[in-house]
Amino acid sequence: MAATEDDDLRNDAAFKEAAVFSLPQAAYGISGRIELAKKANPSFAPHPLVQKTLDYTNRFSVNRDQGALDAFRQYLKDQTVLTQEEQCQIINLVPDSVDELKCLVQTVDDPERQLRSWCAAAGD
């Protein structure tokens, strides 16, 4: 059986290892599904709930550059001991400092998690 665009979407790097999705990842996945459906049927209109979900994820996604998001998530995975849930919270909330991060993501309380280097890199 030949690979389809649908298979490509499911095998995308953003979705392969993620147990939880950030808002930008959700927006990317929903948009991809809608785009595929519209290619198959130009008069396709998503269900109102799906459209509302897409609107929400787009509205609250701070960064929509999929390449940058993938690289940042990989950095968080490789350079910290954060859980996937914590990684998503950071991507969704975009804290300005370690102190703000600790207030927003309350499970982050261990200074050995190398968060200071993350915030320094994110500030550039």
Structural description of this entry:
The protein has 124 residues and is mainly α. 65% of the residues lie in helices and 0% in strands. It contains eight helices and no strands. It has helices spanning 5-10, 13-16, 23-40, 48-60, 66-79, 84-93, 98-104, 115-122. Helix 3 (23-40) crosses helix 4 and helix 5 crosses helix 6.
Let me know the average pLDDT: 79
Q: How much beta, percentage-wise?
A: under 5%
- Kindly name the structural category: mainly alpha
Low-confidence stretches: none
Roughly how much helix do the residues carry, as a percent range?
55-70%
Overall shape: it is elongated
Tell me the distance between the termini.
46 Å
So how many helices?
8
Give the radius of gyration. Answer: 17 Å
Describe the biggest sheet?
none
Could you spell the SSE succession in H and E letters? HHHHHHHH
Number of strands: 0
Quick structural gist:
This protein is mainly alpha-helical and 124 residues long.
Pick out its properties.
mainly alpha; 65% helix; Rpb4/RPC9_sf; nucleotide binding; elongated; nucleus; 124 residues
What is this structure's SSE topology?
Layout: H1 5-10, H2 13-16, H3 23-40, H4 48-60, H5 66-79, H6 84-93, H7 98-104, H8 115-122
